[in-house]
From TrEMBL:
UniProt superkingdom: Bacteria
Protein name in the entry: Alpha-glucosidase
GO molecular function, one term: alpha-amylase activity
One Gene Ontology biological process: oligosaccharide catabolic process
Record keywords: Glycosidase, Hydrolase
Domain Glycosyl hydrolase family 13 catalytic residue range list: 11-419
UniProt similarity note: Belongs to the glycosyl hydrolase 13 family.
Keyword Hydrolase appears in the UniProt entry: yes
Keyword match Hydrolase: yes
């Protein structure tokens, strides 16, 4: 076993974690202050989203200098100090490498846009306009509009899969690859233990650059497949040049990859990545309206079970799963799939039980461990560039939705839902900052915060601690086989984990209804009776209560 296979990894969004100097922005000294809290939770590693110099158009996913810590987060020495302190407590530190694109303020891009024949000219993807002067093709950017922006100095367009301030790097250029690899080696020298690789499956482009098949009503068309022909080759090279020689863990973000692609990315013999974040299980509540408008639907838990089970069985003995429900791009699970009012504790712990019972490495996003919820913000309280661009297109330009309809969707799924500051206690600004927080604290902080949760009888934090301990102490969770029971049941997730003579059952009610045990069409379930972990007190044999979750042994 590698260390990361036994680990639970805690994701920190530094900007919103803890502000140590009162400027309203979470920072690295703030993370150092909270290390005892992280240690208490029991995780083996922390992953920090980008802390490099950045104009923050996309909260640091627009990097201006890969080797500088942005002063708003502290100095490089603070990061070194964090790594030293974390290592003292046996906590590994994982950074986020944004290798698909830089900021348009990165000196590489500022030079590149000047002319067609300087050292940096080919660092980005430049194409001539069509004869009529328009963009080279109809590709849409992920954050709205065309994926191409015109630059008069070169009389050319550059490609950006995200915002126009995030130009895509040209990975076909071997010098670009070396620059990225060098930056990663630089951070290794500072003690970093591994990488989360931002949209790494998008680094290779379709080199024909042809139009995507037209979609009625759409001027720009989102690419269905964003992985080009050299993706595996480039990732393999990254592995050989940096990851393996320096023994660094890797987890890649794989937005459009199928399970077969995930398997290719993570099968050890292919020497690419240790793990990859798949997106498929997060699409169970996504919908599109008849005119292409943003929509959500009731989560399809049958689909959730199918996708997670498919991942478990496809990767079994071949590769390793990265497990997550929440992160800085997703909203809060009790609000999204559970019940964040009456059954907040129960639904938070129910989904946690599902995730931590599976085979793979669980990732926990800051605040998930106390059951934080989505704030119900007004339009002017959102910050995210993706959301703002989408509002402009869907509500203002195309009038596909009213503001109210738009907000109804975003209250469920907006990325900003999870980016509101961490709720530490009931004091001013939830104890996040003595100043004015860069982003508004969820007004429910008086009721939901670390201090209160840890004093409560129903502590989500305590439940996470127990789950994390189980993962560390019980090989059955890391090494046991997986088998789903009652796959046809829409309301209950039941699966077995088996290792030698140990036999466990994970049983979770996904609804706010009470479900009679007699409804579960499996004779096996009744064979399990010894409680390993349970989110209710007292065993109830005849029924599953709302969001009841339990791991039982035979
Ligand atoms: C990834 C990040 C997201 C960012 C995007 C562009 O999906 O997780 O936050 O906006 O890449 O870098
Ligand atoms: Ca600060």
């Amino acid at each position: 076993m590698k260390w990361w296979q036994k680990a639970v990894i805690y994701e920190i969004y530094p900007k919103s974690f803890y502000d140590s100097n009162g400027d309203g922005i979470g920072d690295i000294p703030g993370i150092i202050k909270k290390l005892p809290y992280i240690k208490d939770l029991g995780v083996y590693a922390i992953w920090l989203t980008p802390i490099y110099l950045s104009p923050q158009v996309d909260n640091g996913y627009d990097v201006a200098d890969y080797r500088k810590v942005d002063p708003m987060f502290g100095a490089t020495d603070d990061l070194k100090e964090l790594i030293k302190e974390a290592h003292k407590q046996n906590i590994k530190v994982i950074l986020d490498m944004v290798a698909n694109h830089t900021s348009d303020q990165c000196v590489w891009f500022r030079e590149s846009k000047k002319s067609k024949d300087n050292y940096f000219s080919d660092f980005y993807i430049w194409k001539d306009p069509k004869p009529d002067g328009s963009a080279p093709n109809n590709w849409a950017a992920s954050f709205g509009g065309s994926a191409w922006t015109y630059v008069p100095e070169r009389n050319q367009y550059y490609l950006h899969y995200y915002a126009s301030q995030q130009p895509d790097l040209n990975w076909e250029n071997p010098i670009v690859r070396q620059y990225i690899f060098d930056a990663m080696r630089y951070w290794k020298a500072q003690g970093v233990d591994g990488w989360r690789l931002d949209v790494i499956t998008q680094i290779s482009k379709d080199l024909t650059f042809k139009d995507a098949p037209k979609v009625p009503g759409k001027k720009y068309v989102p690419l269905k497949n964003t992985s080009g022909p050299h993706m595996h080759k480039f990732i393999h090279e990254l592995n050989r040049e940096v990851l393996s020689p320096f023994d660094m863990m890797s987890v890649g973000e794989a937005p459009n990859s199928s399970i077969d692609e995930i398997l290719k990315l993570t099968a050890p013999e292919r020497e690419e990545l240790d793990m990859a974040f798949s997106f498929e299980h997060m699409r169970i509540d996504k919908a599109t309206g008849p005119n292409g408008e943003l929509a959500v639907k009731k989560p399809d838990f049958k689909q959730l079970k199918d996708v997670l089970s498919k991942m478990q069985t496809k990767l079994a003995n071949k590769a390793w799963n990265a497990l997550y429900f929440e992160n800085h791009d997703r909203s809060r699970i009790p609000s999204r799939w559970g019940d964040d009012k009456k059954y907040r504790y129960e639904s938070a712990t129910a989904f946690a039980t599902i995730l931590h019972g599976l085979c793979g490495t669980p990732f926990v996003f800051q605040g998930e461990e106390i059951g934080m919820t989505n704030p119900q913000y007004d339009m002017n309280q959102y910050e995210d560039i993706e959301l703002k661009n989408s509002y402009q297109e869907q509500v203002e330009e195309k009038k596909l939705l009213t503001t109210k309809e738009f907000l109804d969707v975003e209250h469920k799924i907006a990325r900003d839902n999870s980016r509101a500051p961490m709720q530490w206690n009931s004091s001013k600004n939830a104890g996040f900052s003595q100043g004015t927080p860069w982003y508004q604290v969820n007004p429910n902080y008086d009721e939901i915060n670390v201090e209160k949760d840890r004093q409560s009888k129903k502590s989500v934090f305590k439940y996470y601690q127990d789950l994390i301990k189980l993962r560390h102490n019980e090989d059955i969770l890391t090494e046991g086989t997986y088998k789903e029971l009652i796959p046809e049941d829409e309301n209950v997730f039941a699966y077995k984990r088996d290792l030698n003579d140990k036999h466990w059952l994970v049983l979770v009610n996904l609804t706010s209804k009470t479900i009679p045990m007699a409804d579960l069409k499996s004779d096996e379930i009744k064979n399990y009776s010894k409680i390993i972990i349970h989110n209710y007190e007292g065993q109830e044999e005849k029924q599953l209560r709302p969001y009841e979750a339990v791991i039982l042994a035979k």
